[in-house]
Amino acid sequence: MNWDGWIERLRTDFPARRELMGTGSGQAAVLVILYLQDTLPHIVLMKRSEALRSHPGEIGFPGGLFEQGDGDLLTTALRETGEELDLAVSPEDVFARLPGVRTLSGINVTPFVALHDPPPQCTPNPEEVEEVLHPPLLSLWQSFREEAVAHPPSDFAYWFGPHRIWGATARILRQLNEVARND
Hints:
Elements lengths: L2 H11 L13 E11 L2 E4 L1 E4 L10 E2 L2 E3 L7 H13 L8 E4 L3 E2 L5 E8 L13 E5 L3 H6 L2 E2 L9 E5 L2 E3 L1 H15 L2
Parallel strand pairs: 1-8
Antiparallel strand pairs: 1-2, 1-5, 3-4, 3-9, 6-8, 7-8, 10-11, 11-12
């Protein structure tokens, strides 16, 4: 994988545009945080707290539902990243906006992509996040498995150690991988 070429392709093909939102019912945004550590691309994921009513224990990107005070979905992704991981990411570090994905519960999720240098220091909010994960991106992509029968329903997943990554998060990872393969 050519890191610089991949980043430039994401930047060119999926520019990070901001669109003001009127009502955001059923809209959410996540932040895909990329960084290099020992010359290897890494990504930030989190395991949601088992105490949460919505998606307990699932692996995902920091992010959440749009709130009227946010104004736009990028603000939602940045706000939620701060709340969940105590990590401030500047809007200037966000360089791409991938096509949205839909969750099983009908939420439209817009993924934004940011570069973080140096590697991010995250402090998880224990009410929302059980664990912060920093998988190497290439290893994560290599863990791809198609699943004929899956619970919860998903036709493919990625794995990081014992953590199964499926659904909207897996579809976003697949989008990133497809751009990298075409670079």
